[in-house]
Structures are given as C-alpha cells and as structure tokens.
Amino acid sequence: MPETELEIPSLPFSLLGEFTIEFERICFFLRNSIINSFGISGEKSEKAIELLFTRLTAGPLLEMFVAVSKSANSLTPNETKVLMFIEKEMGKLIADRNDFLHGTWFRPSAKEEAATSEYMPGIRKTKTNGQVVTKYMDLSAEEVRPKIDRCTNLINNLAKFEQHKGTDDFDLQFPSVENS
User: Fold this and answer.
1) CA atoms within 13 A on the CB side of 130
2) Of the four listed, 50, 152, 165, 169, which is most buried by Cβ atoms within 10 Å?
3) What is the DSSP letter of 56?
4) Do residues 139 and 119 lie in contact, with contact meaning Cβ atoms separated by under 8 Å?
5) pTM of this prediction?
6) Which residues contact 99 (CB under 8 A, 6 or more apart)?
7) Which stretch of DSSP H or E encloses residue 140?
8) Residues in the chain with pLDDT < 50?
9) Distance from C-alpha of 2 to C-alpha of 4, rounded to nearest angstrom
10) Which of 163, 24, 174 is nearest to 86 (CA)?
C-alpha cells in the first residue's frame, strides 16, 4: 500500500458488521415467525419465504409480523403490551440501522490516527417535516455496542413471545416492558 493511502480503522467497521448481523437475525426471526403462524414448514417454508419476503425491508416486515401476530392469535392484554414493546423497540433499531447503513462516514485524516482510531465521525441527511436535517453521528464502541446488545435482547424477547403465546406468562420474561 502506498504511504499516501489512508487506512480505515477496523474497530468501527467490525462494530457496524456485528450490528448488521444481529439486526438481520431479527429480520430472519420475523420472517420465520410469520411463516410458522400459517403452519408452513420444511421445503415449503423456504419457498414461501423466498416468494413473500425477498424484497421486504425491515419496516414492512415488522408491520406484517405485528398484523399476523394480532390476527393469528387472540392476544391477552399482557401479550398485546409485549407485542407493542417489540414493535417500538424494533422501530428504534430500524432507525439506528438506517443511520448506520445510509450515513456518510469519514475516515480519520492521518494514517497514524486511523491505525489507532476507535471511532469514525459521520453524518446523515434526512427529511423531517419537509426540512432537510443533518444528523451528526459517531461510529464508536460507546455508540454501537449498546445497540448490538438491544438487537440481541430483542431476538431473545421475540423467542420468548413466540414460546409463551397463549400462556400470558410474561411477567418476568419482559421486565423492560413496563419501562418502555
């Protein structure tokens, strides 16, 4: 590599990759949960996922999961609360994902700084109420690690929701529901 080329810090990108992997695990779970709600399994399940969900982004996939969960089951009030928590948390993670993957990230200006850098600054232009807004962000362990943990937590909560449907056994399974 020529001396004048800049190195890209590895920590920010490994964190971004780790977040993306966890986020996509949630989407995988949502797709499979929807298919399972219709009693489709095996090879038919794979074909159904391919046909129905290949082009769905996370937002529409979440909307479908919520709609199917509400219509396929007679949810108790507590289950409805848990489903609302899942929807709210996934909505936040979708916003985080969009910021991370659609943001513009800037490498540190010097090769030495890049080799030791644990963060990268970035911006994301979005439209809010017809106005273009610039959001300033840092791709750092402090910023990304808690979001990775939230993805993992949501996967666990989704699994518990699927396992406990119809039992209304969520009191200790979702302690953060009350705080959301």
Assistant:
1) 0
2) 165
3) -
4) yes
5) 0.79
6) 124, 135, 137
7) strand 131-140
8) 1-2, 171-180
9) 5
10) 174
